[in-house]
UniProtKB/TrEMBL annotation:
Main location: membrane
Domain of life: Bacteria
Cellular localisation: Membrane
One Pfam family linked to the record: FA_hydroxylase
Protein name (record): Sterol desaturase family protein
Native source organism of the sequence: Ferruginibacter yonginensis
Keywords (A to Z) from UniProt: Membrane, Oxidoreductase, Transmembrane, Transmembrane helix
Length: 254
């Protein structure tokens, strides 16, 4: 019964996170303040309800897989073989934020190579094509994966738990921050402030334009959080900076 309750708990948290952190930005940008965000829209093509329904259905399915993997490595006897710890004070409190940052870096590396593999011509149509049905993604596409891809996405948790000590608080903060960044990447609108373009952050971090171009062109910009791997391996779309600047000029004409 503990495993069942563990699964239901993680699934409930995952669905709640999806509804809140994908739903709120969706309704703000696409409905309540649609006119205010008009200049920030990355692609001008219109969405339709069928796309939203497909994205939500696939996301609900993916959440089942994510909850199953979480249950196996957090609530089952398998957790004894991981580095997960229960007492928050087993490690210094500063380890929690550092732990989350390291988890994001490891995840970005894992995601880049996993993502490129899913784009292989012999694999793509059987897995990653589902996600790319959203050529102009909305926040609802954040978890819209084929069930097989959902497993590859969820594998980051055991990778992290076998790599470094993680408290349940670190796991929660990592998955929450990861999902929020994921929603931003699929938002369909660019919301970075004007100063961001001339800061060092622009050279390091991905943007909504960055990932939107991946959905639009089906290749390039494979990174999840950072530009590092794409820039190092020459897979960043050559028009990224140009397209980003064009949209920012539209957003901030003065």
């Amino acid at each position: 019964m503990e495993l069942v309750f563990g699964f239901l708990k993680i699934y409930g948290i995952t669905i709640l996170r999806y509804v809140v952190f994908a739903g709120v930005p969706f309704f703000l940008c696409y409905h309540f303040f649609k006119q205010s965000f008009n200049r920030s829209q990355i692609q001008q093509r219109l969405h339709n309800k069928k796309q939203y329904v497909n994205e939500i259905i696939h996301s609900l399915q993916s959440s089942v897989v994510i909850a199953l993997v979480g249950m196996l490595f957090v609530y089952s006897p398998l957790n004894k073989y991981t580095l997960m710890y229960k007492n928050l004070h087993d490690y210094p409190l500063w380890w929690v934020p550092l732990n989350v940052l390291l988890a994001l870096i490891i995840h970005d590396t894992y995601f880049y190579w996993m993502h490129r593999l899913l784009h292989h011509k012999k694999i793509f149509k059987y897995t990653h094509l589902v996600h790319h049905q959203s050529t102009n993604p909305s926040p609802w596409a954040s978890y819209s994966f084929h069930i097989l891809e959902a497993f590859t996405e969820a594998l980051i948790l055991p990778i992290l738990l076998f790599t470094m000590p993680m408290h349940i608080l670190s796991i929660f903060l990592f998955t929450l921050s990861s999902f929020i960044i994921n929603v931003y990447g699929h938002l369909g609108f660019e919301i970075t402030p004007k100063w961001f373009r001339n800061s060092v952050l622009f050279k390091v971090l991905n943007t909504s334009v960055y990932h939107n171009m991946h959905h639009h062109h089906f290749k390039g910009n494979y990174g999840l959080y950072f530009r590092f791997w794409d820039r190092l391996l020459k897979t960043e779309h050559p028009n990224y900076v140009k397209d980003f600047d064009a949209l920012q000029q539209q957003r901030f004409p003065n």
